[in-house]
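re: ur question from earlier - yeah i can do the single chain one, its not a big deal. heres the input i used so u can compare w yours
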Amino acid sequence: MDTGAPIYDAMLSYAAENNLRLHMPGHAGGRGLAEPFQTLANLDLTEVPGLDDLHAPAEAIARARELLAWAYGADESYFLVNGASSGIHALFMSLPEESVVVVPRNAHRSFFSGMVLSGARPFYLPVQIHPELGTGMAVTRNDLADILAAQERVDAVFVTSPSYYGTTCSIAELAALAHVYGSVFYVDEAHGGHFSFHPGYPRSALQNGADAAVNGLHKTLPVLNQGGALHIKREKLLVEQLAAAYSLLTTTSPSYPILASLDLARQLMMEQGYDLLEKSLQLAADYRKKINTIAGLHCYTEEEMKTIAGVDGLDPLKILISVRNLTISGYQTAALLRERYRIQVEAGDDNVILAMMSLFHHQHEWEEFYQAMGQIAALYRAGKQPDTTIKLPPVPRVHLSPRQAFYAGKRRMPLAQTVGLCAGEMVAAYPPGIPCLLPGEIITEEIYDYLCYLKSSPVRLQGPSQPGLETLLVIEQTP
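and the output i got, formated as tokens:
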């Protein structure tokens, strides 16, 4: 199959015409912008003749979508220029009104906004917790079976795989079970956009039987921020409703640089993806072993992660390192890497740091990271620290649907006085952006204790209008 880049080629053709641009955007090819942006702005175009229309594609974008679907084994694929979140929202909006949806607690905050937009009512699927790290890793078939058997109606099951930390669920089993009960099966595969191109990585959600999957391609491929894709199999989906939801939620002024980066990344992966992933796979294997020779550190392997119920794989490029045997936390380790070594990792918490390696990091860069971690471990090595892990909150008690809670009247209360009340705003530690409390849920004693932990931690919070958590919005009606 032709593996050109139709959108990028069309943009270059238009730029080469050197037209007097009497059309949007207002910078007219880069005028008035700071110099570093001017070259990019020359390709920041709009839907002039020859560049197609994202909402009614018939030329370059239509061809690029065909190539994208072919590359990912989908019946149809959509470009996402509003981030992977917009694909998640579109899937929720494609369901019947007030649908019942099973979602895991380790879902991204975009699941909540999708339920607000759609009116869907959630049943929360328990998440298996890593016993040392206190972080959510996967969901299990048995837990899903219990929920499906107990409910009269479940319209959709929507899970996250891989997790923020790279662990994948047993998607084939989960999808087959959902289909037995007549539910469609969706996967937030935001961090797995590279899986389709090498058998040494976890199988993709579509390969494992999902009806739809969302990729945040900017997370793992050479794509500009906000670039993603929504892939579907037509058999079980309301395709017309999904297309309408996609169009409703997607900007009418799409970024052509984002579209071109998606097109070019797909071309690259079709032509060179296997080789790039193979090189990265070998580097990941070598450096996991090397990091595990450093006293005081532990880099988790796929075999270890698979001992957790529900986990059936691990993205090799997610390098999760425990610092529990150092005298400093993961937060402090991440800060030292930035301040002393000019290395910025993806995340740090009490117990771990997470480094996301790309297909384009070279051996000397892996070595630089390894050497820095060795030096830090030598300075801060200690005996085993007391266990500081705090488990994720228990499955919440949902009092109102997300949409009902969004429109309900609210008042502000001191955090210490909120136990037993109904939350009026979301609280999510970022990263990974997974809510521990959502509007419409009861603030139990356990949730309150977890909020107090977050309040005293250096984590960055998203959601609360008063970030210090001295106060919290609650819904005026009583539980």
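The domain at 274-380 is CATH 3.90.1150.150 (Aspartate Aminotransferase, domain 1). not sure if urs matches, ping me
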